Amino acid sequence: MATVVAASLIPARGAALLVFDYAADAAIVLLFFLHGARLSRDAIWAGISNWRLHLLVLAFTFILFPILGLATERLAVLLIDPALALGLLFLTLLPSTVQSSIAFTAMARGNVAAAVCSASLSNLLGIVATPVLVTLLIHTGGASDVGGLGSVQKIATQLLLPFVAGHLLRPIIGGWIERHKKLLQPVDRGSILLVVYSAFSAAVVNGVWQRVGAFDLGVMLVASAAILVIVIVVNGVAARLARLSHEDAIVLLFCGSKKSLVTGVPMAGALFAPEQVGLVILPLMIFHQLQLIVCAWLAARYAQHQTAANA
């Protein structure tokens, strides 16, 4: 949020904006390279056998969320800027988070190995599934500035190839990366902040704050909260119907109810026109903050109940 304020007060313009765009692209390449290098094959094999749980997580991520996104976008477009309504749909097409899904599962004392597998699988499939869903649900809806083959190529070269390269080099550099997690942590946050600053600078130059007011922000907050509440409620029902264990139900809750800002921001940059990106990612940023607050509270409650049960 501070980065959005900075971009609003001191936006990069002209040549400076071009420099920030190139720097943001380089940071995203490095980010996905490190994500690939961090991905443990042992952790994946430890959880991959639980296919029923993983299918449920993917169904929530790439079926239920998009259905809710379509309904929300149809209603929101009557009240707010069409690009913001499009952003509400776009966020529902993204994969789940990785770090926070695993962290909340561990905090709630769920099946961490399965969470690693589900979250990683969601992100891997999301690199392909999200552009396909955007093409089907947004491009066919008349968004002529959503790229086609060029966008897929940009995602492949900027996200997928660095990820694969990092994972292939894991036997060589994986140990060093594990030992220097704190040193590399700023890459995760810094790259996203850089992309957000670049995107919002372009949006501010194009008059974003003349198009977005307090009412628009309120509508996006209410819409995001409604989507999250519906997903969490359906999540609980699905876990009971599928007779998941308590530990697996926790995985479904935290891996199946969140959307990735880390993946979403660079994808928006690849899929939408530069002047549109700032508006499109604004709903994602609101949803991201909301999901962290709600899931942190839920994880703490699960942990308290488990502690009380073991006492």
Strand-helix topology:
Elements: H1 2-9, H2 14-38, H3 41-47, H4 51-76, H5 82-92, H6 99-107, H7 112-137, H8 149-168, H9 170-179, H10 181-205, H11 208-211, H12 214-241, H13 246-255, H14 261-271, H15 274-310
How would you sum up this structure, described in words?
With about 300 residues, the chain is mostly helical. It is built from 15 helices and no strands. The longest helix has about 35 residues. The protein is globular. About 5% of the residues have low confidence.
Whole-number mean pLDDT: 83
Strand tally, please?
0
**Which range best describes the helical content: under 10%, 10-25%, 25-40%, 40-55%, 55-70% or over 70%?**
over 70%
Number of helices: 15
Rg to the nearest angstrom?
19 Å
> Uncertain spans, ≥5 residues at pLDDT below 50?
140-148
For the record, give the distance between the C-alpha atoms at the N and C termini, rounded to a whole number. Answer: 41 Å
Strand content: under 5%
Question: Largest sheet, described in full?
Answer: none
User: Please, what is the oligomeric state?
Assistant: single chain
**What is the succession of H and E elements?**
HHHHHHHHHHHHHHH
Given the C-alpha coordinates, what overall shape results? globular
Query: How would you classify the helix and strand content by structural class?
Result: mainly alpha
Short précis:
The protein has 311 residues and is mainly α. 83% of the residues lie in helices and 0% in strands.
